[in-house]
Specification:
The protein has 370 residues and is α/β, with parallel strands linked by helices. The chain contains 14 helices and 15 strands. A hairpin with a 5-residue loop joins strand 12 and strand 13. The structure holds glutamic acid. The site of glutamic acid (GLU) has 15 residues, from helix 3 and strand 4.
Length: 370
């Protein structure tokens, strides 16, 4: 069994859910925040770099407005976040100041990590904040996030940050004590070696008024981060001395073993940071060529395009049954695909005389998802 201590903690992303940071709707649990800040300072004293992803803005805004239910309306949620975010940062600042640590607020939308240039810019800025010795405290920029530019939940955001920053570990701390083994013991699974469909089936959504993610989003976050070579913990943030216990392999909760062969950074960005614009269906012969031989997707393998996309967009690639197994950057737009699929290659060649082969997705731009 691989232990969390197999890799020494070097850079740790700590994700804190609303439920951990608050007691009751919109009431900050300052005692707990102070305790977590102290634990983070202890890690820093051991030269471990820490990045925090903190939820709580919407919940704190609700508290300030005395709302007992999360508003359904997007603009109301955005307003709650605007009110709560400054309270959240004030609290973090107050918790870290006596420890002689400076915090830095970083608010991100999905769009900031989807565009390659902005993604690289965010990485540079976070690296600089770490180099300055500060604790970056990241949250989704909920106030400007509409559905199409949202991460959706901070579990996903924390995994993206862990991947972007090549963290050694990601600790997802919430009120959930870990992943319960629904198929076997009914107890918390201490270690998950690989996230299989059975593991995914053990997760359920959230029922909390203020939280967003639930176990489903935590498992998919763990999948993303482990593929980046990062070890992931899902544990209760209410436990004392939790970070040290987790990182020394003595923690409660579930540890997800990092993938032995992590995807390289650009492929991670392709696989996990994009919202695919459509689907390319391929024939049965193309599936093993892509899956086992790692080759490019050629026009002869494509049967259909679903959705509207342009050349250069990121699309999913599905087998003849419609099951998505890969993702990549398409060299052709959706309206060019029918002619390609009907093998009117010559027609396409007259449009693109410089293209030697009718590669729809080049292997360098293609990544397998399962
Ligand atoms: N960004 C949201 C907030 O600060 C939380 C989202 C989440 O909990 O996943 O309230």
């Amino acid at each position: 069994m691989i232990s969390p201590t197999a890799v020494a903690p070097r850079r740790v992303v700590v994700k804190l859910g609303t439920g951990v940071l608050t007691s009751g709707i919109g009431q900050l649990d300052t005692q707990r925040i102070t305790r977590i800040a102290r634990e983070i300072a202890e890690l820093r004293a051991k030269a471990v770099e820490v990045i925090v992803v903190s939820s709580g803005a919407v919940g704190l805004g609700m508290g300030a407005l005395k709302l007992s239910k999360k508003p359904k309306d997007l603009s109301k949620k955005q307003a709650c976040a605007a009110i709560g975010q400054s309270r959240l940062m004030q609290t973090w600042q107050a918790a870290f100041a006596p420890l002689d640590l400076t915090v830095a607020q970083v608010l991100l939308t999905h769009e900031d990590l989807r565009s390659r240039n902005r993604y690289l810019g965010v990485k540079e800025c976070l690296s600089q904040l770490i180099a300055y010795g500060t604790i970056p405290i990241i949250n989704e920029n909920d106030t400007v996030s509409a559905a199409e530019i949202k991460f959706g939940d901070n579990d996903t955001l924390s995994a993206m940050v862990a991947s972007l920053m090549e963290a050694s570990h990601l600790a997802i701390l919430s009120t959930a004590p870990g992943l319960i083994d629904m198929k076997g013991s009914g107890q918390i699974l201490p270690v998950v070696e690989r996230i299989t469909p059975e593991i995914e089936a053990m997760a359920g959504g959230t029922t909390s008024e203020t939280a967003t993610g639930g176990m489903i989003s935590k498992i998919s976050a763990a999948k993303l981060a482990t593929h980046a070579g990062c070890g992931v913990f899902i544990a209760s943030g209410a436990e004392p001395n939790i970070l040290e216990r987790l990182l020394s392999g003595q923690g409660p909760g579930t540890f997800f073993v990092p993938s032995g062969l992590p995807l390289e950074a650009r492929k991670r960005w392709l696989a996990y940071f994009q919202r695919p614009a459509g689907i390319l269906l391929v024939n049965a012969c193309a599936v093993p060529v892509l899956k086992e031989q790692g080759r490019s997707l050629l026009a002869v393998g494509v049967t259909e395009a679903r959705g509207q996309f342009r050349a250069g967009d990121i699309v999913n690639i599905a087998d003849p049954s419609g099951k998505i197994f890969a993702r990549g950057k398409t060299a052709y737009a959706s309206d060019e695909i029918p002619a390609l699929a009907e093998k009117k290659g010559e027609w396409i060649r007259t449009l693109y005389p410089n293209r030697k082969r009718l590669e729809v997705v080049h292997r360098n731009d293609l990544v397998l998802l399962s």
